[in-house]
Amino acid sequence: MLKEERQHTILNEVELHNRVLLTDLAEKLDVSVDTVRRDVKELDGENKLVKVHGGAVSTGFANHSPARNNVYALEEKILIAQKATSFLKENSVILIDGGTTCLELARLLPTNINLTCFTLSLPVAMELLGKPNVETIFIGGMLSKDSQIAIGSNAIHNLSQVKVDYSFIGTGYVDSAFGLTEFDWDIVQTKKAVIQASKKTVLLCISEKLNSQHRFKTCDLNMIDTMITELDPEHPLLESFKNQDLYLL
Fold first, then answer.
1. Average pLDDT, the chain
2. SS3 of 41, please?
3. Rounded distance between C-alpha atoms, residue 180 and residue 162, angstroms
4. Less packed terminus of the chain by CB within 10 Å, N or C?
5. Do residues 116 and 137 touch, judged by C-beta distance below 8 A?
6. How sure is the predictor about 64, in pLDDT bands with cuts at 50, 70 and 90?
């Protein structure tokens, strides 16, 4: 595989999953970790991704600019966020997870109803501060430098003290048989706590992530009440999800 092809694949993986490990990229490309590390360093120098310890992060995930011109599949994520707003009612108590799709939901929260919103995400919290009808409660904890999300025991304990009407979460990977997975163990533990803190959980997920999985399991699909993609619920790509105890939107 030529270097240009390798780097194109690396960028695709980083943009789709927001964060990737060098070891996973090396396995996917069937090259050495050193080769991937050199590619990632070069792409970082061209400002196409952000090199972090042991991996890479998409620029849209690491740097939230008002223009959002660095967010992958922005139109699809906006459509998903628009669908998600249909769950919101006057005085709803919700939780918004981190990630670029959840950030689009924060931007699109309606201004004609009053909401209470918990969040673990610094970018989401900053977005919500500009909404006078939203009472924002930040769930503190140790901050992940990559995702800018509170993780760890303090965040998990704080989540155990609340029960929100709806949580809106993202995921790195989702499979109809294996459920939701991530490569980051700490993120998985925090997401588990979010689901436990929710009466209903809504997964926001672009269709490119369907039928993918990683090392650490967040939950089975039956722990999720609704999955929202940019697709029509009758789309063939969603066929394997229709047999699950899951509402598709």
1. 91
2. helix
3. 23
4. N
5. yes
6. low
